[in-house]
Fold these 4 entries.
Entry 1:
Amino acid sequence: MTSAPHSTPFSATSYDFTPYRDCLNFIGGEWVPSHTGRTMPVTNPRHGKVMGTVPVSDAEDVARAVAAASAAFPAWRAVPLKERVQILYRLKALMERQLDEMSWLLSHENGKIFSEAQGSVLKGIECLEFGISLPNMAAGQQLDVSRGINCQVTYEPLGVCAGISPFNFPVMVPLWMLPQALVAGNTFVLKPSEQVPFGAMRIAQLLREAGLPDGVLNVVNGTRESVEAICDSPEIRAIGFVGSTKVARIVYERGSAHGKRVLALGGAKNHLVVVPDADPELTAQTLAASAFGCAGQRCMAASVTVAVGDVDHIIEGMVEAGRNVKLGEDMGAIINPEAAERIRGYIDDAERRGAKVLLDGRKAQVDGAPGNWVGPTILDGVTPDMPAWTDEIFGPVMSIVHVKTVDEAIALENSCPYGNAASIFTTNGGVARYAIERFQAGMCGVNIGVPVPREPFAFGGWNDSRFGAGDMTGYDGYRFWTQPRKVTTRWAAQHDQTWMS
């Protein structure tokens, strides 16, 4: 068992391939290998080279992490909320001090360009700031409800909680969950994506440096077996999940069947509705940025442009904006070769079915970086029989669908089983309000390509984009990781009694 190697700085300051180190599990304050002894490679998507390895854990590893979290819970719960928050203050300072290093680490393990990786770390810090603010919001309520009788509500921790995070935001998504859960007094088991374990590793290392007691946060790496063990563990009271809709549904059903509180955020098929009076330059640039930012590997990426009437000039501007994207500089790599091949398969299929490829990224490559590349791609004339219409591609592919009216556009958006995000591009306030009030999506925008709510507003979709109640971030997140205790008190008999007394 050791702790020192996991504080090893990541030395990269460019996109040049830089090996790192092997990752371990973090259980009870110690860095330990998996019980299984098995590992798998962590590969830099830009170069296709191995940076290190990550453990493949099993149910016994999860049980060890849960036992450590259970043992740490009574003492952590007893720490006053304002003292718990001080650790997040210190974590924020450490992350700000190491911002560039963490951003380069994320860029190398995930494939993002540096500026996108840095933005995701900064968003994680913003989530920390909300957690730090919770003492000003979490006081509960109290009221004298009758003569001599007071009712009070406090928000109590659940106990051991767990989070399962995806590959696309290795630091930000864990920090959607950890601040609220830890400030509330819970202990935690985090299962990061096996493809990007280093971001979670650094969070654990920095929290330890910030003074978090051993066992309060535990990190277990692995694949399906570790996720199933989290769902089945009788000691874990709540699970937060972010990933595909297919797995989100499985986690929700399996965890709920064991009596857990589960909030599982799934996939998306986000629609951007463009009407003829939309600002041409703003709209074209925003459509391209939404579709091709983070190589389309985010649940908030636009994947369908719904063209209402004659907006060909805007589509031409979007194509031009996409053509000007410099692969490797403005847009990063795809997470793995299988994902890149799957994305190209959707493009091939749409073309065979009659879609016109206005911009083709299938053969894109970057000199000196023989990794996983798909360039910006725009498909026009996509129809309902095409998987490019229905499926979440999760890559830099924009599909264009043509309709005649705003009502047709709204009906098309609402026919999608997902309900993550939708936006309308218009200069008419009445049209904007009409659409926003009718979209069946949890996050909506007007002239916004990625309508992500900033803290303290919460993140979460509807329909098949979310399983469970509430949202993941903001005050909804704090309520998810807590349970309300209602206390009614009376200290003296009253002469003028009511039915309550």
Note: Residues 270-446 form a domain with the Aldehyde Dehydrogenase; Chain A, domain 2 fold (CATH 3.40.309.10).
Entry 2:
Amino acid sequence: MRHCIYPGTFDPITYGHLDVLARAVKLFDRVTLAIAHNPGKSPMFSPEERVELIKPNIAQHANVEITTFSGLLVDFAVEQKADAIIRGLRALSDFEFEFNMALMNRHLNASIETIFVMPAEAYSYTSSHLMKQVARYGGDVAKFVPPNVAAALTEASVSP
């Protein structure tokens, strides 16, 4: 059974993330969507809130599970008995960072492959950071995030 880890902060999850996940589901028998604890990114939502925001949006995928992790991604992948890490590439600007990360992961554990997947063109310019910024200033993010996520962004943006 082929298993991959789809890691990210997913703060919040976007349709671009879900598009990459749908592609991973076609390639692997089992996909673990792994929410990273990354306080350095100043997350808007706690890892537990992100899990709850994501759950209804992955329910149609029977072979997807969701969890959180901290520490080195390759260690988590080995612990989960994964064959690969899947990463989305939106634009050329993502490539350098992701390429360096993949090489470091390979250095740390050569048995875990990294696979890059491009989301649909419609999502190539969206990011969680951008969604938070737009929502914070009252912009409409409904085209880029699921309805429950848009509502959570709006609520979090107006809360003190």
Note: DSSP finds six helices and five strands in the chain.
Entry 3:
Amino acid sequence: MKKYLDFIIKGIYAGILISIGGIAYLAIPDKIVGSFIFSLGLLTVCMYSFNLYTGKVGYILVNKPSYLIELLLSLIGNFLGTLGVGSLMRLTRFKAYIETATSIVTTKLNDNLLSIFILAIFCGMIMYIAVNNYKKEDDVIGKYMTIFMGVMAFILCGFEHCVANMFYFSIAGVFSFKVFLYLLIMVLGNSLGSIIIAFYYNRYNKKVGLKDIFKKQ
């Protein structure tokens, strides 16, 4: 039982950190700078080994079926963490952040499900690459650069990250059947994208690091 509780707690912390990154993004008018600072959320999640669903789902291919429980509990924790931060932010003076978040979620909810699913797939790909590279890369620069570049890429491209969007919906105070349907589609898309890249990595990986790539240039 303690193990399962740990999954949820680590998921909550991950949700909180992603939410803090989201707050920074809402606070900074420049999207490039905002996306760079947002990266601190994923970086901290990786450094402290918290349970972020999008960073863990790709490893379903190399774990036992029981890993599904960890994934589900982590996702629940992520939602609770983002909901908590979003709800607290609604009690502060930062009304402008709420307005910005409301504009963001309105755009998402006006999109169609196929578009959301496709954009979520690409985000899932980037997240697996960023997290897996952090875990496997020995080169310090490459290890951290992929985190920042990965987060910046998915944000600037407009790809859909289910946990980040949980925060945006929470701070905007927008919840409905449609919202949870869209979040479900994002979760599925993120999962598929991550698994697609994870399959290639596990099937064809030759353990080539960034240093080896640059040596071949």
Note: Confidence is low (pLDDT under 50) at residues 208-217.
Entry 4:
Amino acid sequence: MDRYALSPMRDLWTLETQYGRWLEVELAALQALESVGVVPQGTYAQLQPRVRVDVERILAMERQVGHDLVAFLWVLEEQAGAEGRWLHYGLTSSDVKDTALALVLRDAVDLLREKSAALCAELRRFAQRYRRSPMLGRTHGQWAEPTTLGLKALAWLDMMTRAHERLARARDTVAVGKLAGAVGTYAFFPPRAEELALASLGVEACVPAGQVVPRERHAEAVFAIAAMGAVVETMALEVRHLSRTEIGEVSEFRPEGSSAMPHKQNPILSERLCGLARLLRSSVGPSLENIALWNERDMSHSSVERVLLPQTFTVADFMLTRARELVAGLEVREEDMRRRITAAHGLPFSEGLLLALVRSGMSRREAHTRVRRVAMRAVAQGRDLAQLAGEDPQITDRLSAEELTRISRLPDLLREVDTSFRRMGVGD
């Protein structure tokens, strides 16, 4: 994971951070218990300066006792002395672990939202810059009607904006903890103490508590991240297509070459983003399977999460960072984009010819059949669609030379592009 792990995201998933968050929760719970009179006054003030995270000692203790949280508590009690007996009072392991995980998830989602916002801003600038830069549209890998690069980027911005909003909802969903005891009944930990402790930690209470925070919350966050990854993949895949030698309309700011073929300019970053999106999607299945646990809980989800959550968030963080760099540094060859339209033998304007014939009174079926016949001749002969249409008496009887010329005027075809920009509040 080091290759795709960037700080500060990577730092949220270290063992030292995990123990640090456990300690944060334990101390918040202790202070809250003292506030409601369960723990003797002054206990927190005496204990708090003594306890610290000692990773090596905790791991050594875990090897002896076979339970990570028990080992953690015993090491804290060694440090704290007699007052250490009040740590973890009335709590179960999931109280501490799930609440600590909520703190990590909250901060991790915040980091992703910072980067998704930065990517949205970059896409907005890119779309505005190229809003009137014409290029061939393509459907099914075939020439379609002209569009603009800015309109293509506006669609990316629309998708990424929704991805950003899903992350916001996911933050609210996962930023919940619980300090309710073994099966969530508050048998030995008062609800008022939970309220105080969670408020000090900056998370909401999970209601009803149960023994664990329901894993469908985590699954929702994983899905939001996977969907965001699919949006990044959509952008990267398009860059890969447009970078093809036979198209060459864009290229990455730093394409990589080949060890064997010096002429190569491979869109490695885009390919990497597409590959990593597969990892994010692969996280959704296990996160859904983690939802159904035996009775009040079992441990089947724990081992999955120890791998899945750090990987998902770390990869997503990397992808958002590199996606912004991809958009910011993308080399756009506008002249080549225009040349591609010109070299398409007028085929991207076939609908305009079809509709002109329909307006002249020809049935749509006949118009479609006649324009397709002319279009196939244009392909076979390498000639322009309008030129061949001008040689067809069935067409020229209905359309003048000026009308045939008008169907291929780019400004007319793209006159409403600004409408989409206005509707999204981008630009003027």
Note: The chain has 19 helices and six strands.
